[in-house]
Amino acid sequence: MHPFNQHRLQKNLIPQAGYSQTGFSLVELLVGLVIGLIVSLVIMQIFSVFEGQKRTTSGTADAQTSGSVALYSIQRDVQLAGYGLPLYDRTNMPLTCTTTSFDHDGNGATPNINTIPIAITDGALATDSDTVTVRYGTSASAGIPVLVKNIAGTTVTVDTNMACANDPYNDTIPKRNSVYAVTGNTDCTVTMVNDTNANLAAAPQSITLLNTAGLTIDKTSLACLGEWREVIYTVNANNELTRNDEPIITGIVNIQAQYGISANPTNNATGNHIAQWVDATGVWAAPGNTSATCDLANANRNCIKAVRIAVVARNGLLEKLPAVSTACSSTTAANPTGVCAWDATSAAPVNASPAPVIDLSNTQNWDQYRYKVYETIIPLRNLVWTKERL
Question: What does the radius of gyration of the chain's CA atoms come to, in whole angstroms?
C-alpha cells in the first residue's frame, strides 16, 4: 500500500476532537425493552381486570333479567288461581266440596281434573326446588252459576247455557270446556260439554253434557269453567324454569314457595289476614277441607290467601377463588346475610314463620357463582274475594 494512503487510513480510524457518538447503546436498548415490557404488563393487567368486571356486570344483568321475567311469569299465572270457582251462591260453593279430584271425561286413561286452586310441592331434598301448581278456568262467564231446571238424558235445561261451547275458536275440537256441578253443599262433580257451538247458540237454554249422573232438578248449580288449566312451574336439571315441562327462562337455579294462611277464613274482620307463612310440609303437604280453623295441625285449602315465592337466578360466570357467595345465615332472624329467600320478620306474621331454606350445595363450586334472589307476595284474589261466602 502506498505510504500516503496508509497514513490517511490510520488518520480516519483515530477519533477526532469535536466528533460525538451517535445511536443507542446496548444498555439503553435493554432498559427501553424492560420499560416497554412493564408498561405492556400494566396495560394487560388493567385490561384483564376490566374484562373480568365487565363479564361479572353483564352476567349479573342477565341474571337480573332472568329472575325478574321468571317471577313475573309465575305471578301472572298465580294471580288467576281459582278463576271460575268462587262465584257461586252461599248454598252451593265449590270451595266447600269434599271431593277435589274428578274424572271429568269418563276416561280412566286421562288425568283427573283437580279443583284445588293452588298447590305447592316441597322439594324432596333440601337442595331441591319447590314446585308450584296453579289451576284456573278460562270461561268468559267467570263461573257465574245457573240453576238446573230439567234433565232429559244428558240434555240439561237451564236459564242460560252461558255459551259454554266446545272451543270458541275451533268447533272441530270436541269437549274442550268443562262444567262444574254442585248439588247441595258438598256434593260436587265435573263433566264436559258434549254439544256443538251451533246447537248451543240455537238453544241458549239447553246444554248437552257428557254425564249427568248425580244431578238433580232445582238443587244443582252449573258453571262453565271453560278450559280448566293446570300450570306447573319448577326448575329442571339444566337450571331452567319450566312451565308444564317446557323451558321458558334460563339461569334459574331454585324456587321456594310458602302458603300464607288465615287463622279463620270465614271471619269477616280477619278472614283475609295472613296469620302465618307455612311450608308445604306436614299437614300442609296436601291441604284439603278438614277444619274450619287453620294452623300447623289443621290444613284447610280455603285458608290459603296468598303465596310467597322466591326465585334464585345465577350469574353464569364462575368466579375465581375466594368464594363470592355464602349460605344464608338464618331463616328466622332479621336481616340475614347470604343467599336467602327473605327476611322471616318482614311480613310481621302473628305466628313464627321461618323462611324456606335455599340450599345450592348440590352444584359444584356453587359458592364461586353470584346469585340474585327475587321474591314477592301474590294475593290469591279469587279466594280473597270469596271470603264471606265460604
Answer: 36
Q: What's the pTM value of the predicted model, to 2 decimals?
A: 0.82
How many angstroms separate the CA atoms of 279 and 260, rounded? 9
* Exposed/middle/buried for residue 165 (C-beta within 10 Å: 0-12, 13-18, 19+): buried
Residue 370 DSSP code: -
Domains of the chain: 94-116+138-226 (2.40.30), 123-133+236-389 (no CATH)
Confidence band for 98, pLDDT divided at 50, 70 and 90: confident
Amino acid found at 80: L
Residue 96 has pLDDT above 70, yes or no: yes
- Select from 197, 140, 142 the least CA-distant residue to 165: 197
Given its phi and psi angles, is residue 142 left (phi above 0), alpha (psi -120 to 50 degrees) or beta?
Answer: left
Confidence bin at 165 (pLDDT 50/70/90): low
- Band the pLDDT of 39: cuts 50, 70, 90: confident
CA distance 57 to 47: 15
Highest mean pLDDT (candidates 22-26, 146-150, 310-314): 310-314
**What mean pLDDT do residues 203-223 have?**
85
One-letter-per-residue 3-state SS of 317-365: CCCCCCCCCCECCCCCCCCCCCECCCCCCCCCCCCCCCCCCCCCCCCCC
Tell me the CA distances in angstroms from 145 to 88, 201, 224, one per residue in order: 6, 18, 8
Alpha carbon distance 79, 42 (integer Å): 55
Give the span between the Cα atoms of 82 and 223, in whole angstroms: 13
**What per-residue confidence (pLDDT) applies to 157?**
92
C-alpha cell at 241: 324454569
